[in-house]
Amino acid sequence: MTVPPPTLTLQPDPAGTATLVLAGTWRIAEALPTVAAAERLLAGAGDLRRVRLDTGAVTDWDSGLVAFVAAVEDRCRARGLDWEIPGLPAGVTALLTLARSVPERGAGSHTEDRRPSFFARFGQDILDLIQSTGEIMTFFGEGTLALRRFLLGRARYRRTDLWLIIQETGADALPIVSLISFLVGMILGYIADQQLAQFGARIFVADLVGLATVIQMGALITAIVMAGRTGAAFAAQLGTMQVNEEIDALRTLGIPPMEFLVLPRMLALILMTPLLAIYANVLGILGGAFVGTVVGGVTLTAYLTQTQEAIGWNHIIQGLISATAYGAIIAASGCLRGMQCGRSAAAVGVATTSAVVTAIVFIVIAAAVLTIIFNAIGLS
After folding, report:
1. First and final CA of the chain: distance in angstroms?
2. 72 and 215 in one domain?
């Protein structure tokens, strides 16, 4: 079967209108007429005001026709000519519309991208922080109401999910918490030993490491580890459910996502973070004891006795209160960003990153606020 070749002719009329007639098979595999050939035809037609495109004789086409029509239209509009394309195939029209919907980029773009100034970026960051604070406070309020229904026995959730999440946030986190807590305790021990050795007071390494770990560092280390490990996991899980419209399905069935999805995760972190903080305190003290005995020459018995004398119940209570607050912040940040996730795979990654950043920022803010409060009420 003979395939008719692509042809391009121009039919001018005295009224200043010219018709570009396309005929034959307009496929990339064929030797298509060039845009330059169309420009030469238009230039030889004299004084033109309008150009029409006639594709009624086109027997077959692919993207070659779309590219040609788009390029000729750009040339005509650049010369100030009116452009008409009546009777264009529906597929070509759809592809042209899609091509025009993509903004121009590169050197030929009509809009110039300008990076905001430092003060503009700083102000935007402050506004984002204020907005995040409001969102988290609202989320905390909804979580408090869900917790109230839980205490009244009215919350709708699965107990198996709660125990599974407790295991994931508690026992499964022990290895990484153990490693980091022990190493941080060693670091604190080395720093303290270098300074106190100048005064012959190496025994007080136990005081410094013990107090720093129990009051703040144990809970803070645990919180940061859990933010990167568990908070990100919560955001990814809920974000994926948002993409798959599972959360919408729960709402359709009349099941509150705050109770079914968020409540078990918040309970698990609020319960497990203080326990992990106590475990981190022990490992941090042992890390400092390793340095004190190996480097400082202090006996293990003397080190542990000094630690016991330095640490009081008020210090332990401070650490547990801080750890509980950090756990609530991590759970709220992870679940909030997961629930706010968009409907694409890329949005899940954005939600995960945002959850970690939000959690760490508010953990540090909470640490500063709690330290001030503890000092104000005399708990230190």
Report:
1. 94
2. no
Residue-wise pLDDT tens digits, 142-153: 888 888 888 888
- Indicate which CATH number applies to the domain containing 86: 3.30.750.24
Percent pLDDT > 70 in the chain is 95
Residue appearing with tokens 């699965």: 158
What is the per-residue pLDDT across 196-244, written as a single tens digit (0 to 9) for each? 888 888 899 999 999 999 999 999 999 999 999 999 999 999 999 998 9
pLDDT for position 290: 94
Residue 235 lies in a domain: yes
Are β-strands 17-26 and 7-12 bridged in parallel, bridged antiparallel, or unpaired? antiparallel
Q: Is-above-0.85 flag for pTM?
A: no
Structural domain boundaries, residue 349: 122-377
107 assigned to some structural domain = no
Domain boundary among 100, 133, 162: 100
Please name the residue that has the structure tokens 């452009």. Answer: 83
- Considering the domain architecture, whether residues 329 and 257 belong to the same structural domain is answered as yes
Tell me, yes or no, whether 139 lies in a domain: yes
| CA-only gyration radius of the chain, Å | 34
Based on the domain organization, do 310 and 257 belong to the same domain?
Answer: yes
Give tens-digit pLDDT for 17-61: 888 888 888 788 778 888 888 888 877 777 777 888 888 788 887
DSSP assigned state of 109: -
**Is-contact 251 308, C-beta < 8 A?**
no
Q: Which residue has the tokens 């709402």?
A: 251
Of 69, 100, 131, which one is at a domain's C-terminal end? Answer: 100
What is the domain count for the chain?
2
Which amino acid makes up residue 257?
P
User: pLDDT for 85-141, tens place per residue?
Assistant: 777 777 777 777 776 765 555 544 444 456 778 888 888 888 887 887 888 788 888
Q: For residue 99, which amino acid is it?
A: A
Q: What share of the chain is helix, strand, coil (3-state, %, to 5)?
A: 70, 10, 20
CB atoms within 10 A of CB 32: 20
